[in-house]
Amino acid sequence: MNGSRERPPKRALEGDRLLREQTNLVEDELERSSEIEEIFRHRLDSARLIDVTPESSSRRDALSAPPRQGVTGQPDGEAHRPQRAKARDQRAAPRRGPAGRRALAAILAGGAGSRIGGEKACVRLGGRPLISYPLAATRSAGLEAVVVSKRATRLPAVDCEILLEPDSPSHPLCGVIAALRHAKGRAVLAIGCDMPFLTGQLLHWMAGLEGTVAISLDGRLEPLPARWAAAHLTELEQALEHGAPMRRVLESLPARTVGRSALRRFGDPHTLCFNVNDNVDLAHADALPRAAP
């Protein structure tokens, strides 16, 4: 032997190279997953998130109370959060004048979405998150919009404020009530996050109507989209306590109904009100033409 080191066989070198490439791919995938989780964690600390849950109200009350005797020093970070939320509410207050009186658009995303596998707002339709379609329609309508969700709801990136509703119960009225409280006297145009065929023209028209307004198709009131007047907030809170269905709540209110003839100028009425509840609905929606983003 000449004392030189033997070179490993070519097959062994190729195996090492493939192993390194596979390891790098796994590490890249783990890094991407961590980035995604960080995005969702960051959403809860975002400056655009507004907490109007009862727990947040209790913290605000505690902050506004005079300090207890013998307690000194600054409140901790948790205590400061409601103050920052309140400041954001003030910055987001509607402008005076006709534009400020127009209804606030609230995209409801607090449901579990169990029939479609959960995380409904993130479900992909045409390469985009499902919630992006009603958001685009509100932008086209020129409306101020908020997404209303529960604290645990996973959302894609959205370009508007996120309003937290109470963690329970699981009911669409939770989102409507949270939005009405945030709207400070304005009406709320409630929209499902799973409604990909709404148009800006329809939403603009509904937002400009007076009072509570519901769509009626085939003799039945559609729960969403619907315009909820601020004057009915107390009645909605009572209905939520009894777990009343949205359709029954609308039927109990002096709501104005708009039917097929009024909707036809904006498109096919049933398509406009179509919502995606399960994978069958998703496949059907994917086969229908949708508005460009």
Task: Write structural notes for this entry.
The chain has 12 helices and 10 strands. The protein is of the alpha/beta class and 293 residues long. It has a domain at 49-58 and 104-287: Spore Coat Polysaccharide Biosynthesis Protein SpsA, Chain A (Alpha-Beta Complex). The strands form 2 sheets. Strands 1-6-5-2-7-9-8-10 form an 8-stranded mixed beta sheet, sandwiched between helices.
Low-confidence region ranges:
26-47, 59-100
Radius of gyration: 25 Å
Average pLDDT confidence is 77
Number of strands: 10
Pattern of helices and strands: HEHHHEEEHEEHEHEEHHEHHH
Second CATH tier, the architecture of the domain at 49-58 and 104-287? Alpha-Beta Complex
What is the CATH top level name of the domain at 49-58 and 104-287?
Alpha Beta
Number of helices: 12
In CATH terms, what is the fold-level topology of the domain at 49-58 and 104-287?
A: Spore Coat Polysaccharide Biosynthesis Protein SpsA, Chain A
Strand content: 5-15%
Taking the alpha carbons of the first and last residues, their distance comes to 72 Å
The secondary structure category is alpha/beta
- Main β-sheet description: 8 strands, mixed
Helix content: 40-55%
Characterize the overall form.
globular
The CATH superfamily of the domain at 49-58 and 104-287 is known as: Spore Coat Polysaccharide Biosynthesis Protein SpsA, Chain A
Oligomeric state of the chains present here: single chain
Strand order of the largest sheet: 1-6-5-2-7-9-8-10
